[in-house]
Amino acid sequence: MTDFSLTRIAVDEDYQTQMGRDVREGLTATPKTLPPKYFYDGSGSDIFVEITELEEYYQTRTETAILRRIASQVIADVRPDELVELGSGASEKTRVLLQAMRDRGDGRVLYVPFDVSEDAVVGAAEALQADYEWLDVHGIVGDFDHHLGQVPRTGRRLVSFMGSTLGNLEPVAQVPFLQKVAAMLAPHGDDAFLLGIDLVKDPEVLVRAYDDASGVTAAFNRNVLHNINATLGADFEPEQFEHVATWREDYNRIEMWLRASRAMAVHIKDLDLDVTFEAGEGIFTEISAKFTRECIADRLAAAGMTVDRFETDERGYFGVVLARRS
Questions:
Q1: Has residue 116 got a pLDDT over 90?
Q2: 202 φ, ψ to 5°?
């Protein structure tokens, strides 16, 4: 029989209130911006699943294939008593690691999903425990910026942060985040950190991954406007915004924008806010930074960690890094 417990370090702020604050701040800035977390309402989450299955979107299947190849050896080397996942997931990647932990021993496996959303934590627990009767879950509701140090320890720890989510942080925020992760690890290599990173490659490959021929990523990008309409009573016309994905070689990153096709005015009822757009004006919605092996080693070193192993696929598209606290 499975066991589930939940620790609420932080309680979700009311979603509508949080969105209202972020939308007001972002749409009155220059350039206008919207946080990418608002891609993900119910429809947006479904669209993202479609994205992961696209031929152009190599990231998810490539990272999963690497994990399948190395998971047993990683678990044998680290010998974790618990898997702490930053950003709750019930995906195949999580399952690969949990199954490797189960295969290593004959006891129960402890999974610790950490996310700011209680729904995400509970959803991950329910999906995994439905399939794994040997899995215990201790969910943590908290914020990456403030609460990583409060995750309770039960033994030797493997912390995972997959999907190249690190690349969604601005460069100045990456090392401070990694420092917080390092503080979760026991010194001198007893614990470990497993990190998935998308690698610098042919810009045409990268742009196709964020601007697919069938327009699924475009729909995902525009969904942030549908979500604002539904949640805050706005009157955006999402189809009047062009999806733009651009490779910025100076920053080694993809930038996603929504570009107004014509001059327009948008009213956001719940904020009593009017926002005007000039023709061609953009809303900056997401960054996705790409890394080199040297770059990520430097970022980890600056955070007090050393690379124990670096694995990639045969094309060199994606990397999975195992690091330990120095």
A1: no
A2: -50, 120
